[in-house]
Amino acid sequence: MNIFRLAGDMTHLASVLVLLLKIHTIKSCAGVSLKTQELYAIVFATRYLDIFTSFYSIYNTLMKLIFLGSSFSIVWYMRYHKTVRRTYDREQDTFRHWFLVLPCLLLALLIHEKFTFLEVLWTFSLYLEAVAILPQLVLLQRTRNIDNLTGQYVFLLGGYRGFYILNWIYRYLTEPHFVHWITWIAGLVQTLLYADFFYYYFQSWKNNKKLQLPA
Amino acid sequence: KTTKEAKDEL
Question: What is the residue range of the signal peptide feature (chain A) (predicted)?
Fold first, then answer.
């Protein structure tokens, strides 16, 4: 474990807590894409399949349980909670996210480190996570006024993988043979997808204005 | 070994 990875995990945890805070306290998921939440639930379900077969540390297992539990409970809240589900703007959140799942699965069947069931699904989860934010970014473009919590959620979610990139550089420099191109490229693409969001987020923060993405 | 290593990340 290194400081970059810890910062990444804490940033990721913070993003999840911000979203749960928003949904649980003000019982609203306005501006949040259910499609992105469903994709993230699939990402964690396919990435943490080894949670019962391989143990690294209490921390590792605990964080996996937190991410699995939070992503599925957010999907449950947005789909079935009587108050929250009413605040979900269904007609704006129209990204065909299933069109992201299949290409990622096909790509994982083609490009992976080992052709085993767990490895292919793990690779699939990396590819899917890289594009999972797209429905949310599209929804943000359509939602005129983005509330602070939603903006912070997306900002933190985008930042965590950026810290992971620093972690990969650090591990590449300090651990011999630590080379994982698939993880690195997927992580880089994922972070780059946030580039314009980060730009407008900083602009709004600098000018102390409401966050608005250009249509 | 190295591939196993990658799995220690979240």
Answer: none
Tokens 């600098």 belong to A206
DSSP state of A59: H
Q: In whole angstroms, what separates CA A210 from the centre of its chain? A: 23
Band of the pLDDT at B2, cuts 50, 70, 90?
Answer: very low
B5 to chain A, minimum CA–CA distance in Å? 8
CB-CB neighbors (< 8 A) of B1 in chain A: 177
CB-CB contact of A131 with A104 (8 Å): yes
Torsion angles phi and psi, residue A95, rounded to 5: -60, 130
Where chain A has pLDDT below 50, the residues are none
CA distance A155 to A114: 33
Nearest to A51 by CA among A36, A40, A62: A62
Which residue in B has a C-alpha nearest to residue A182's C-alpha?
Answer: B6
Better pLDDT: A212 or B10: B10
CA distance B4 to A119: 10
Q: Which candidate, A210, A57, A52, places its Cα nearest to that of A145?
A: A210
Q: Which of residues 1-10 of B touch A (CB under 8 A)?
A: 1-3, 5-10
* Count of beta carbons in the 10 Å neighbourhood of residue A32: 29
**Residue A52 confidence (pLDDT):** 87
* Residue keyed to tokens 């993405």: A213
